Amino acid sequence: MTGTDSFHTLAARASAADHDRYLCALFAPPAARAALFALNLFNAEIARTRETVSEPMLGQIRLQWWREVIDEIYQGRARRHEIAEPLAEAIRAHKLTRGYFDRLIDAREGDLDEAPPESMAALEKYAEESAAPLISLALEVVDADANALQELARHSGIGWALTGLMRALPHHAAHGRIMLPDKEGRDVRAVAETARRHIDKARKLRRGAPRVVKRATLPAVLADAYLRRLVACGHDPYHPRAVIGPLRRQLLLSRAAFFGLS
Question: What's the CATH number where 90 sits?
């Protein structure tokens, strides 16, 4: 298989695993796209851990396997695996920070707990740990200073993750899974308002940022659009118009990427 074939295969798999993040990655510099695809595949793989195991212990084993994969990569080795190999290339080429991977894996241990988050603060913390490190890694891939942009990654990640949880509510409910905190009455409106606060902060931080930083944080743009649509549907994630079609998403991202609109 040639390098071009490998890239297109990686792109196709990234598109199938997480189409929204795939669309965002297309606006990154060409040299960064393969790494972003690899990161998104890794994230999608660990995110579906709970859905692919029959009991929490098996999920723990699966996540431990990924911890060992990451550890080996940082020791200069890589397992022969369709995700581990391109991930190793991304880590080496862009000198990605190990800690972000550890945080992402640790966050997915929370998915194995049957109990819902105890409070909105706990839900925000889960949203941060399961999404912000991935945005920080994307910033590193495009040679931005992720340390200096921690607040942008944090607010973008929380807003994106909370929005995703609301959109996934019908899917989770069908599988008997509850991800909204009971103390807030599992109120979608309250979660949406919290997500809105974080996305608004992310939008302010994105203003005036270099174009490459804006493009690395495009998930915040999609989260903003999804939130607006959810509000228009009366905060009902089951409403058929709560979904945004792929062409509309591409248009929103194109406007944000080329004209700096957020």
Answer: 1.10.600.10
Q: What are phi and psi of 175, to 5 degrees?
A: -105, 15
Q: Token digits for 182?
A: 């009971």
Q: Which two tokens stand for residue 198?
A: 């974080």
| DSSP run (H or E) holding 65 | helix 56-74
- Do residues 213 and 149 lie in contact, with contact meaning Cβ atoms separated by under 8 Å? yes
The DSSP call for residue 111 is G
The radius of gyration of the chain from alpha carbons, rounded to an integer in Å, stands at 18
Dihedral in degrees, nearest 10, Cα atoms 177, 180, 182, 188: -120
Closest alpha carbon to 262 in 214, 193, 195: 214
- Domains contained in the chain, number: 1
Contacts of 151 (CB under 8 A, 6+ apart): 201, 205
Q: What is the pLDDT of residues 89-121, one digit of tens each?
A: 999 999 999 999 999 999 999 899 888 888 999
Domain that holds residue 225: 3-259
Residue type, 143: D
CB 225 within 8 A of CB 219: no
Tell me how far apart the alpha carbons of residues 220 and 204 are, in angstroms, rounded to a whole number: 11
pTM for the whole thing? 0.94
Q: Please name which of 185, 257, 200, 259 lies closest in space to residue 28, comparing C-alpha atoms.
A: 257
Q: Supply the angle between the helices 188-206 and 150-167 in degrees, to the nearest 10.
A: 150
